[in-house]
Design a protein that fits this description.
287 residues, alpha+beta, Nucleotidyltransferase, domain 5, Methane Monooxygenase Hydroxylase, Chain G, domain 1, 2 domains, 7-stranded mixed β-sheet, two-stranded antiparallel sheet, 9 helices, 16% strand, disordered N terminus, ATPase_NBD, D-ribulokinase activity, ribulokinase activity
């Protein structure tokens, strides 16, 4: 099995925490790309979602695996392509911060209140298929779209494009969860791990866009923890992987959707998200 796939499944194990109702949970492992892993006692064949794979993570459970081809890579592409990138990167180095922390602080200043950050992009929308779509459209030829651009190139513009990218990725996760739920799951909780989930705006906007609670493991390096769990079972320290998961993993933080107003806002953005795809398909009808 390829190392990235193994790492993601170790991450799903390390992020799982106590043995819970897996029918209501999906593990999100965010990095350069993102994997979405759900497990069930019965085999579920879901269009555009890989699997089901028997006993791929836990014995006697079936694994379904959705994913997004480019997430962290897409965020970096958008900000590195902006004319203000070098200016903000130099500012970040001077302040001893990452460029994401600088952008997050800029968004907070622009919004005034943390609860208002999502509304900054009411006129900016993205279809995040810059590297095709893995799930649930399963089409590698799809391309991305960014609308609402202006004839300006300020740090504030860069921050808005960065936010719109995070929101589009979150809406892609919503689409995957919605597809899984239509096939038997009842997902309302996301177990999140990986580099992308260390970004508080990434996490909060995923909660807002999907309507799910985001559970972050106490151990931030979930892939390493998942590998360690498997090692303890192999060494006989624990009798089973669920026992090791229960003993070695704990929830460190829970992030929930912010307000009903934000839910309504994201419901509208989700409609636009699908319309951007439908509009693109109009040009393919005679191709």
């Amino acid at each position: 099995m390829p190392t990235p796939v193994l790492s993601a499944r170790w991450g799903a194990t390390g992020a799982s925490g106590e043995v819970a109702d897996f029918n209501r949970r999906v593990a999100l492992i965010g990095g350069t790309s993102t994997g979405h892993m759900a497990m069930s006692r019965t085999a579920r064949f879901i269009p555009g979602v890989w699997g089901p794979y028997y006993s791929a993570i836990l014995p006697e459970y079936w694994l379904n695996e959705g994913g997004q081809s480019a997430t962290g890579a897409l965020i970096d592409h958008i900000i590195q392509s902006h004319p203000c990138y070098q200016e903000l990167l130099a500012q970040a180095k001077t302040q001893g911060q990452t460029i994401y922390e600088v952008l997050n602080a800029l968004l907070r200043r622009m919004a005034g209140e943390p609860e208002d950050i999502a509304y900054l992009t009411k006129d900016i929308h993205m279809l995040p298929y810059f590297h095709g779509n893995r799930s649930p459209r399963a089409n590698p030829t799809l391309t991305g779209t960014l609308t609402g651009l202006k004839l300006s190139r300020t740090p504030e513009d860069m921050a808005l494009h960065y936010l719109a990218t995070i929101q589009a990725i979150a809406l892609g996760t919503r689409h995957i969860i919605e597809t899984m739920n239509q096939s038997g799951y009842s997902i309302d909780t996301i177990m999140a791990s990986g580099g992308g989930t260390k970004n508080p705006i990434f996490v909060q906007e995923h909660a807002n866009a999907t309507g799910c609670a985001m559970l972050l493991p106490e151990e931030s390096e979930a892939m390493l923890l998942g590998g360690a769990m498997m090692g303890t079972v192999a060494a006989g320290v624990f009798d089973s992987l669920p026992e090791a998961m229960s003993a070695m993993s704990r929830i460190g933080k829970t992030v929930t959707p912010q307000t009903n107003k934000i839910k309504r806002y994201y419901d509208r953005k989700y409609r636009v998200f699908h319309e951007l795809y439908n509009d693109r398909q109009l040009m393919q009808e005679d191709a």
